[in-house]
């Protein structure tokens, strides 16, 4: 066996180079980021183990959609999504042994799904011929962050089933689009606990910068969520609670417990039975970092949460947002909280995310004002941001 090294702009690109030279049976040993030059640009380096005794190595090629196995059927958009979700479910069920394997599988699935989508669009024939009002709504939806595929599918269906047909007004078209979007919007009610006891442990997870700590304070302070309950916050940040969290504790009376070491967390959890709600603010972590899943699973084993809530920021690029959230799905979260709506103009990507993740929404967040900038998961919130005064 021999160790070889390959680099690329992304992990998938580096692994792809290794596979093209040595086939798909390579053994991934390690991956790390390298800084190159003075401009701070980065490369990803992977180290692999190869068996040089093999006489011939079957070359690896990326998944192709040109063969019979991946050939889409006519009107197969729903089938494609269901197939993709079925594959994701299988991954969640068997949990690959290493993070690198998980990342590789998800990246290849995302690449395959995009190829299938592009092929479907190509085979759809001529561009949809729509009356002016339908074209106006279509362009606004794309401008607001809907994927072109989703926006065109919604408008095409609306055009086919709207009673006024080509003479429909903007208001009528938008009302019909909303009716099509409603099934994608599922609600997770934080006030309804599945437990029979009054003691609940809720763990908030998510990438660095998603706004978990701010959202933890907002949940504890909201009168229709946890403000009327005996609530305590555990800060699992290795650097200790933020100044904002300390100030919030003094102002609201909600205790904040500092956890600096891993071995402290278990003993802390055993002393909190008298509280109705325990909110565990897990330190931010990149889902692409080494040993991400192992570290998160250690938290789950110690905390033993009744619910895991994923926190994701809407100011992320949709591809990064989906890739990040998809890896957190391995923890099987109960619901999702979406933050930083005030930092994006492309709010429509919310529906693309909901279609892919199929997680119910627990809350919305925007801004840093603890007692104001939070919204319950009501469809009016998202519809007003997407369609504005035209609704």
Number of domain units: 4
Query: Any idea what the shape is?
Result: flat
Q: In percent, how helical is the residue content?
A: 40-55%
Named CATH topology of the largest domain: Rossmann fold
Strand order of the largest sheet: 6-5-7-4-8-9-10-11
In the CATH hierarchy, the architecture of the largest domain is 3-Layer(aba) Sandwich
Q: Roughly how many Å apart are the termini? A: 64 Å
Largest sheet: 8 strands, mixed
Number of separate helices: 13
Rg for CA atoms: 24 Å
What fraction of residues sit in β-strands?
15-25%
Q: Structural class of the secondary structure composition?
A: alpha/beta
Order of helices and strands: EHEEHHHHHEHEHEHEHEHEHEEH
CATH class of the largest domain: Alpha Beta
Residue windows where pLDDT falls under 50 for at least 5 positions: 55-60, 62-80, 120-126
The total count of strands amounts to 11
Supply the CATH superfamily name of the largest domain: P-loop containing nucleotide triphosphate hydrolases
Quaternary organisation of the protein chains = single chain
Mean pLDDT over the residues: 80
């Amino acid at each position: 066996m021999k160790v070889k090294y390959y680099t690329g702009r992304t992990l998938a690109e580096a692994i792809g180079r290794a596979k093209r030279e040595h086939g798909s049976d390579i053994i991934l040993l390690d991956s790390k980021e390298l800084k190159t030059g003075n401009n701070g640009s980065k490369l990803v380096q992977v180290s692999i183990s190869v068996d040089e005794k093999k006489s011939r190595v079957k070359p690896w090629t990326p998944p192709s959609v040109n063969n019979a196995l991946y050939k889409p059927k006519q009107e197969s958009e729903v089938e494609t999504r269901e197939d993709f979700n079925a594959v994701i479910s299988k991954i969640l069920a068997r949990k690959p042994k290493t993070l690198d394997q998980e990342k590789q599988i998800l990246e290849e699935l995302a690449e395959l799904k995009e190829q299938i989508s592009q092929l479907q669009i190509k085979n759809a024939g001529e561009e949809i011929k729509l009356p002016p009002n339908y074209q106006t709504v279509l362009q606004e939806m794309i401008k607001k962050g809907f994927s072109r595929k989703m926006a065109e599918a919604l408008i095409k269906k609306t055009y086919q089933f709207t009673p006024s047909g080509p003479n429909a007004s903007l208001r009528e078209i938008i009302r019909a689009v909303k009716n099509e979007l409603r099934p994608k919007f599922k609600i997770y009610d934080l006030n309804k606990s599945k437990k029979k006891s009054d003691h609940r442990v809720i763990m908030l997870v998510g990438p660095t910068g998603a706004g978990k700590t701010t959202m933890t304070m907002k949940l504890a302070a909201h009168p229709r969520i946890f403000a009327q309950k005996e609530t305590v916050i555990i800060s699992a940040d290795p650097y200790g609670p933020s100044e904002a969290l300390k100030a919030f504790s003094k102002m609201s009376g909600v205790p904040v417990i500092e956890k600096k070491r891993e071995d402290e967390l278990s003993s802390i959890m055993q002393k909190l039975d008298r509280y109705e709600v325990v909110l565990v603010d897990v330190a931010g972590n990149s889902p692409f970092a080494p040993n991400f899943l192992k570290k998160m699973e250690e938290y789950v084993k110690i905390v033993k949460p009744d619910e895991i809530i994923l926190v994701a920021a809407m100011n992320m690029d949709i591809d990064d947002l989906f890739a990040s959230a998809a890896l957190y799905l391995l923890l099987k979260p109960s619901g999702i909280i979406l933050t930083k709506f005030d930092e994006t103009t492309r709010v429509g990507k919310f529906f693309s995310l909901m279609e892919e993740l199929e997680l119910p929404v627990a809350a919305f967040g925007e801004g840093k004002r603890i007692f104001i900038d939070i919204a319950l998961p009501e469809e009016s919130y998202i519809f007003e941001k997407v369609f504005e005064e035209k609704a």
